[in-house]
Amino acid sequence: MGRPQEVRGAVAAHLQIEPALLADGALLADDLGLDSLAGIELATALEDRFSMRITDDELAALRTYGDLERLVLRKVAA
What we know:
The chain is mostly helical. It is 60% helix and 0% strand.
């Protein structure tokens, strides 16, 4: 399993949804139902899973699943 699929699987498992619903353009709030608390919980889960940190500013700037995946992949590669 590649890193993008690993991120997709981790997000899908946390949100208890099918990975296929995580299209790049899926809006975190509108399409996936993430409010600010759910976003923080997801960020914390991803930080623990991938041993990296997502700042409050980075989290606030995320709009789509694609934004989130790119951020996590960039941080894991650093």
